[in-house]
Amino acid sequence: MNRALRKKYFAECWLVWGGIAIGIVMFCWFRVWIVGELDTAQFRQIIDLLPKDWRKFSPVNFDWLVSYLGRTSLTLDEPMLIMLVTGWCMIRGSDVVSGELSRGTMEMLLSQPVSRGSLFWNHALWTLSLLALLVLLAWGAMAMGIFTTSVEETTYPEIKIPLASYSIPLRFLPPVTETIAMATVVNPLAYAPGVINLFCLGVFFAGFSAFCSACDRYRWRTIGIVVGFYFLNAGLKLLGVASEKLSWVTNFSVFGFYSPASQIENAQENPWTTLWLFEWDDHGQITGNGTLLNCGVLLLLGTILFLAGSRIFERRDLPAPM
Fold it and tell me: Which of 98, 146, 163, 253 could lock onto 233 through a cystine, CB 3.0 to 4.6 A?
């Protein structure tokens, strides 16, 4: 019976998943290509012209942002990518109970030799498996963008000081432009902490959607609740970033535990930061959440919501089909 359920879920979602997968691949590849169109020196000049107050909206340090790794890492922070990945989780998570009830097919499913728990968890595992594949596609598309993109590096002639690791650029002389492969300056494996964080965010929204679906009978209402929750949390995160006085608001937003670019930056400086619960400055002060805390909280909350949704579905009275 589990095999029959998997065939049913595949027939229901392959078209939606395929469209989202194509969108993710095209977006990530195109985003990396755009970064390669502007060399580091030109981008640094643009950054220097921005007001300093705008720097608070950047999830990473501006000195690291001008690098190719920094700019391509921001792909994982793009709202378009986040909405495509979480959109899959919300679409499929909302279908597990309220979707079947809305279509009037739940009674037919439960008349077969399958338990409610088996039906719920087969759906959840199918959703999470295809979520993992979407995240891997995003990672692969970014890697392919790196291997197929050439960048121009602009440098100025310089004078090296003897007996010292210091040089003076001669900016009054014409710059030298050299075309190199982006793969020589960016390693796709460096994206691993951010990619894992994206998957954990998807697990949370899949769990939340399944929980809401288990409590409701109308799928349209379930989707409305989940989408409203999504934009509420996005608004809280934006409010906390925009105002230092309201920075505490991000603690109440699920997106406060999603910072892939920052985690990639920290891992580049020190790979052991991926195992930290918090980020620390040179004075021993906590400056933010670590990779382990961000991913752990999202995974824990998603798992709890899945378990709660399964228990509610197994115990609730199901309405008769209309």
Answer: 253
* pLDDT tens for each residue of 223-245: 999 999 999 999 988 888 777 77
194 and 263 Cβ atoms separated by less than 8 Å: yes
Eight-class DSSP state of 8: H
Q: Are 198 and 260 in contact (CB under 8 A)?
A: yes
CB contact at 8 A, 174 and 124: no
Please give the full DSSP string across 158-216, using - where no structure is assigned: EEEPTTSS-EEE-TTSPPEEEEEEGGGT--GGGGHHHHHHHHHHHHHHHHHHHHHHHH-
* Local structure of 322: helix, strand or coil: coil
What is the CB neighbour count within 10 angstroms for residue 150? Answer: 11
Both structure tokens of 132: 């993992």
Residue 52: CB atoms within 10 A of its CB come to 7
Q: Which of 202, 300, 298, 264 is nearest to 73 (CA)?
A: 264
Average pLDDT over residues 107-128: 88
Query: What is the separation, in whole angstroms, between the first and last Cα of the chain?
Result: 26
Q: What angle do CA 139, 81, 247 make, to 5 degrees?
A: 110
Q: What's the confidence (pLDDT) of residue 287?
A: 64
DSSP 126-146: HHHHHHHHHHHHHHHHHHHHH
Tokens of 22: 């194509």
